Amino acid sequence: MHETRDIHCELLAPLLQPLLGKFYRAHRSPMRAPSGAQTWVARRQEILAALNLTPLDHGHWLTGLLVAPTARSQGLASQLIEHALARTAGPVWLFCHPDLVGFYRRLGFEPATQLPPALAERLARYQRSKALLALARGSGAHGEA
């Protein structure tokens, strides 16, 4: 495994948002930063990994997680998620392919038993054409009071 000590995880300043689009395009990803989302990146000088946290129903929806192919298998996705979520209040929800459930469970995500209505509707639409599961982490993420 490569050293990740020289990797810096940080909230990307709004003026630097175009760098995220460039990162996604460079890796032929259709992902983009949603309007109003916090964009978190892991970088040395260049961006090596990114994710978005969109405020939603007293929590956040995690989308757009991507690690550059040359930086994979170094723990960057886990490092970036942990860094961003340690600085984010409230529950966090995400949708993932069933093959990724183990990865997210190791980071403390559990199957979401209750989703905010906007996410429940979106998941139902997505599930018409994709195998996706909803996971959640944080207080209230599983429908507790």
Automatic annotation (TrEMBL):
<protein>
    <submittedName>
        <fullName>Acetyltransferase (GNAT) family protein</fullName>
    </submittedName>
</protein>
<feature type="domain" description="N-acetyltransferase">
    <location>
        <begin position="1"/>
        <end position="128"/>
    </location>
</feature>
<keyword id="KW-0808">Transferase</keyword>
<dbReference type="InterPro" id="IPR016181">
    <property type="entry name" value="Acyl_CoA_acyltransferase"/>
</dbReference>
<dbReference type="InterPro" id="IPR000182">
    <property type="entry name" value="GNAT_dom"/>
</dbReference>
<dbReference type="Pfam" id="PF13508">
    <property type="entry name" value="Acetyltransf_7"/>
</dbReference>
<dbReference type="GO" id="GO:0016747">
    <property type="term" value="F:acyltransferase activity, transferring groups other than amino-acyl groups"/>
</dbReference>
